[in-house]
């Protein structure tokens, strides 16, 4: 309930303070929300596979340490070293791939956020120049709507079904406006 009140409150405050700018920024909410979702996902989401791969190499190392005398007596140091190196290369490969995907997701999130800020300040300056709002109203509208979109992006991780519903709603809105023109 708290999240819904933040979303509704931010949108309403943004629309009341400068409705032209608020509407223009609300049109960018799907991009911002998905961008923030990818940004948070890139930070949190790719550690599981790497951790499991490191656990396997840790098992090999623990086995050698626990049985150090036996390994030394049977001259199996090189065999266990080769096993450990083979197991440690797996997380390296996973990490390289996940690093690329994670960097792209984080970069997309930051890029969208900065572009929407730039658009908001540009369009807000046009509204100030035309006398539709003052600078305080412009900043209030920009901050409220953009932070509302970021809250939506953070919320997508909490509700997996809600996440699918929002994606479908965004696609519906996109297709609706696309075919109306």
Provide key terms for this protein.
181 residues, ABC transporter transmembrane region fold
Provide an overview of this structure:
- The chain has helices spanning 2-17, 19-26, 29-44, 47-66, 68-73, 77-129, 135-155, 160-180.
- It has 181 residues and is an all-alpha fold.
- The chain has one domain: ABC transporter type 1, transmembrane domain (ABC transporter transmembrane region fold, Up-down Bundle), CATH 1.20.1560.10.
- α2 (19-26) packs parallel to α7 and α3 packs antiparallel against α6.
- The longest helix is centred in the middle third of the chain and has 53 residues, at 77-129.
- The mean pLDDT is 83.
Question: What's the SSE blueprint?
Answer:
Elements (H helix, E strand, L loop, with lengths): L1 H16 L1 H8 L2 H16 L2 H20 L1 H6 L3 H53 L5 H21 L4 H21 L1
Summarize the structure.
This protein has 181 residues and is mainly alpha-helical.
Structure summary, number of beta strands? 0
Q: Sheet with the most strands?
A: none
CATH topology: ABC transporter transmembrane region fold
The tally of domains stands at 1
CATH class: Mainly Alpha
Q: Give the CA-CA distance, first to last residue.
A: 36 Å
**CATH architecture classification:** Up-down Bundle
Q: In percent, how much strand structure appears in the residues? A: under 5%
């Amino acid at each position: 309930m708290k999240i819904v009140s933040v979303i509704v409150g931010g949108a309403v405050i943004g629309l009341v303070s400068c409705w032209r700018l608020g509407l223009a920024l609300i049109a960018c909410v799907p991009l911002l929300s998905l961008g923030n979702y990818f940004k948070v996902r890139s930070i949190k989401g790719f550690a599981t596979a790497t951790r499991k791969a490191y656990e396997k190499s840790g098992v090999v190392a623990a086995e050698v340490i626990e049985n150090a005398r036996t390994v030394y007596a049977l001259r199996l140091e090189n065999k266990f070293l080769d096993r450990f190196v083979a197991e440690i290369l797996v997380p390296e490969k996973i990490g390289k791939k996940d690093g690329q995907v994670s960097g792209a997701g984080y970069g997309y999130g930051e890029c969208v956020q900065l572009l929407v800020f730039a658009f908001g300040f540009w369009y807000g300056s046009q509204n100030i120049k035309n006398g539709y709002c003052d600078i305080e109203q412009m900043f209030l509208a920009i901050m409220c709507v953009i932070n509302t979109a970021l809250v939506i992006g953070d919320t997508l991780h909490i509700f997996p079904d809600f996440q699918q519903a929002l994606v479908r709603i965004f696609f519906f809105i996109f297709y609706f406006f696309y075919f109306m023109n």
